[in-house]
Specification:
Butyryl-CoA Dehydrogenase, subunit A, domain 3; Nuclear Transport Factor 2, Chain: A; 2 domains; seven-stranded mixed β-sheet; elongated
Length: 308
Amino acid sequence: MGDEAWLTGRFEEDRPRLRAVAYRMLGSASEADDAVQEAWLRMSRADTDDVENLTAWLTTVVARVCLNMLRTRRSRREESLELYGAGAAGPGLGESGESGPGVGVGAGPVDPEEEALLADSVGLALLVVLDTLAPAERLAFVLHDLFAVPFGEIGPMIERSPTAARQLASRARRRVRGGAPVREADLTRQRRVVDAFLAASRGGDFEALVALLHPDVVLRADRSAGPTPAPLLIRGARTVARGAMAATGRARYTQPALVNGAVGLVMAPRGRLFLVLSFTITEGGIVGIDVIADAERLRVLDLAVLEG
């Protein structure tokens, strides 16, 4: 019993790090808890007496569990996108958010507010971009760049050499940072407008939204984004603002990101990309908004983390 109590206590010491690794690998608090729970089960069954660095051993276990989960995720994600779309109250888009079952030693249910705060602390845009990476790229980048795990330890996890693991992390890093450079002045101006749009949406400030929109603004939403089976086209500042007000509850799952080299918004409950807002901004305000939720369109977007 004493050994079991020591093992439990030792695992709890590493739980925050393990959950942090798993969350950045998976982008979902409940899935991260599942991965940590699996690590606990493996630890409780394994003979760890000869393990010199238990933290490294547990990190490796969690990373491999996450890698397997990522490799089996793609088909489920595509089915979810096709089934629910961005206009439906499906997983991740309903106002209730996620409340998965409690798992692991001392773990409790995942609260929707906790999920949103966790995504904010990590960076929702980072989770979205990470979700576009191949599983091995994501593992190499997360473990090395975010948790300083040496490539010599990462390589065996993905059955690659340390050099190959380094290349995967480098490729992921370029994807996270984005491709073609954007003029700083344009980026600053776009960011200011988009940040104001998001703040007004979250705060339910109708007049502030109207002030940001050009009087003749045009919003286009694809079939997956709207409540009807046909693409949606809305004109006029007050009409578009009313639509934004209707999505106030979802705005907490939304953050700025680079979308095809310009500042846009990504909506990603549980770290999974479901919808993107691409803006056309002039001196007169926002003149166009493209709402993208179609799975094929989302796949070809060039998304990157917006620094600062």
